[in-house]
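From the shared-data thread, chain only:
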Amino acid sequence: MRALGLDASEDIGLKRAVRPPVKKRADQRVEKKGSASVARRPTRNRDDLAGHHYRAIIESSEDAILSKDLNGVILSWNDSAERLFGFTAEEAVGKSITIIIPADRLDEEPVILGKIARGERIEHFETVRQRKDGSLVDISLTISPIRNSRGKVVGASKIARDITELRRARDRQHLLLQEMSHRVKNLFALSGSIVGLSARSAKSPKDLAESTRARLAALARAHALTFWHGFNEAAHEPTTLQSLVRTIVAPFDEAGQSRIVLSGIDAGVSGSAVTSLALLLHEFATNAAKYGALSTDAGSVKVVFAEEGDSIVANWTERGGPPVSIPGGELGFGDVLSRIAVSDQLGGEIVRDWRPEGLVIRLSVPRSRLET
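Structure, as C-alpha cells:
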C-alpha cells in the first residue's frame, strides 16, 4: 500500500490497538531507575510485527481501503482501491478524494469530513463513486476516524465495496415482485372476462360451467408458457409462431365463430424465445380482452405474419372495440415488461399505433433470435 510521507513529529499515524499488559518473565532483566523498577519490554519487535500484520490485511483485502486527512487529501491507497477505481497509488495519493466522487455527490464529502472532525459516528451507507474512466460504480462505504497517539482525530479511513451485482439482484427482485403483482391482477380480471365470454354462447348453466372450465384450462396453458424455464422444469418444446398465438388467444376466442384470425407466413420458435413471445402475446390478448376489441361482442383481432429482410414481423390489428385514445401518464408495468421482453430478450422492436378505429401493434424480431 502506498502512503504519503509524513513528518514523525506530526504524530498522525493510526493509534495503536490497546493490548493487555505484558507480564514480566522470570528470566527478564530488571533495570533500576531511581526508586522504581522498570522491566525492559521488547516492544519494538512486537510493534513491527503488528504493523506488518496490519499492512498484510489491508493489502490482501478484496475491499478498497484508503485513508485521507481532514482536508480530504488521500494519504494511502491499497491495491483493491486501484482495481475498483482505476487510479494507481501514485496517481491517487496526495490528491483530493473528490477525484472519485461524481459531481452530483460532491456535497457528501463536506458532511463526512465535518462529522469526522467532530468525532461523530458515521453509519455505513451506500452511494455511487466514479472511476478513472468516468464510469460510475455502486459501493457500500464504511468510514472510521483515524486518531493520533493523543486521541485527536486527524483523518479518516474508508472501506469501499463494489455492490454492483447486489444492486442488480435487488432490481431483479423488485421487477419480479412487480411482475407477480401484475400477473395476479390480470388473472382476476381475465377470469371475469372469461365468464362473460362463456355466458354469451351458453344455453344452460351446464354449458356455462363447461365453457368457463375449458377457457380457464386454456388460460392456464397459455399462462404456463409465459414463465421462464428453470428450477426442475424443462425448456419449452419447439413450436411455430402461429401455433403459439393460437395457444395464447384460445381462452378469448369463440369455438363456433373465430374472432381472432391468423394469416401470413409461419416460422419455428424454440428455446427462450418461446417464453418471451408468449409473454408479449399474452399481454396483447389480455389488454384486448380487458379494454380492446375482445371486450365487446363485435370486436375482432387480425394477426398477420410477414418476412422483412432478416426479421419476422407480426402485425396485431384490433377492430370493433371501444373508442381508442392514446393513454396518458407514465407507462404501465405491462408496457414496461413488454419492452424488456422485446429489446433485451428478443433484440426486436415494438411500435403501437393508437388509431381511432382500433389499436395496431407492429412487432419485429430478428429470425435468428426466434430459435435461440
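Residues 5-40, 229-235 have pLDDT under 50 and may be disordered.
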